Amino acid sequence: WAKAEGRGRWAVYDPERSARDIARSELVAGLPAALERGEFVLHYQPIVSLLGGTMLAVEALVRWQHPELGLIGPDRFIGLAEETGLIVRLGEWVLRRACHDAEAWRRQFPQARLVVSVNLAARQADDPAIVDVVADALECSGLPADLLQLELTESAVMGTAGEPLRSLHRLAALGVRLAIDDFGTGYSNLAYLRRLPIHCLKLAGPFVEGIRGDSSELSADHRDERIVDALVRLAHALELWVTAEAVETGAQAERLRSLRCDTGQGRFFGAPAPADEITARLRAAEEPG
Ligand code: C2E
Ligand code: MG
Ligand code: MG
Ligand code: MG
After folding, report:
1. Element (H or E) spanning 116, and its range?
2. Mean pLDDT score of the chain, rounded to an integer?
3. Pocket test for ligand 1, best of 61, 71, 117, 267 (most atoms within 8 A of CB)
């Protein structure tokens, strides 16, 4: 009978599609209440020096502890939160929570000088209020500005009109560090990049994936290695730090180190984990011997 109503109606009766749509609309509808109920949690992933192996920073990565569906990753709800605008409030919660946790680590392990790195969605960065929100999060937590890093993608940095965001200079003036996330996957305007007050480039996972570290297993033309080599040189010429994302093997870490990459992040150095695990790691690093 669906057929009788015409081809266009078939999609309505596709059970797989409606399951997806329900999940999506339920997630959208559930987001604001989840924020009220405190169902979001932060996991932290170590960012480690490729020279000495010291944990220099952690990236805050949000998860939704859903009462029925369990732990939901950001890829399933950050996009929805951006579409609905909820990202502004969710992002502010992430920022305040991350600053609070980082300040607790600073008090307990002052020598570690651990930086916390927080993702900013384009929509948040585009909001002129972001500078006051960041300043207030620092003030309320007591975290020194230089222990906060904000990660923006290339497209977020370029803003909506293709102009670099004016807020970036005001954020940098607060003393926070700015990083370009997933560098190499977007459209970078190098002419602007060189004038922006950024501190760090995070090389996107796909380039790192192409690095095997074992010369016998290198991809035919070493293309990803050459790209990483060039991007590291570019970053260093601009006096920026470089973090390699998605480092999964020791061989990759070793190769990235020889390409002069400064820091690495990925499963090889530690998966994203609850704050307690970072505390335990800081404690272990402090123990003599
Ligand atoms: P991202 O900022 O590029 O974060 C890095 C992602 O790589 C994380 O995924 C992390 O779990 C994953 N990853 C870690 N180790 C490895 C590895 O060894 N190999 C590979 N292939 N991947 C690894 P996650 O946690 O699912 O986050 C996905 C994205 O969601 C983030 O990408 C970021 O764009 C967004 N996101 C997460 N938290 C927030 C947030 O608080 N605010 C905003 N605006 N976006 C967020
Ligand atoms: Mg990030
Ligand atoms: Mg990234
Ligand atoms: Mg990403």
Report:
1. strand 115-119
2. 89
3. 61
Report yes or no: 103 and 142 within 8 Å, Cβ to Cβ: yes
Exposure of 229 in the CB half-sphere (CA atoms within 13 A): 8
Measuring CA to CA, how many Å separate 158 from each of 92, 188, 234? 21, 8, 19
- Which of 82, 86, 119, 153 for a ligand 1 pocket mutation test, highest count of atoms within 8 Å of Cβ? 119
CA distance 192 to 139: 31
Phi-psi region of 244 (alpha: psi -120 to 50; beta: other; left: phi over 0): beta
Q: What is the pLDDT of residue 4?
A: 46
**Ranges of the chain with pLDDT below 50:** 1-6, 8-11
Q: What span, in angstroms and rounded, lies between the C-alpha atoms of 6 and 226?
A: 54
Q: How many helices (H) and strands (E) does the chain have?
A: 12, 9
Three-state secondary-structure class, residue 179: strand
Model pTM?
Answer: 0.92
What pLDDT score was predicted for residue 19? Answer: 60
CA distance 236 to 203: 13
Task: Judge if the beta carbon of residue 205 lies within 6 A of ligand 1.
Answer: yes
Q: Is the CB of 92 under 6 A from ligand 1?
A: no
Q: What is the pLDDT of residue 15?
A: 62
- For residues 274 and 61, give the distance between their C-alpha atoms in angstroms, rounded to a whole number: 10
Residues 192 and 174 sit within 8 Å (Cβ to Cβ): no
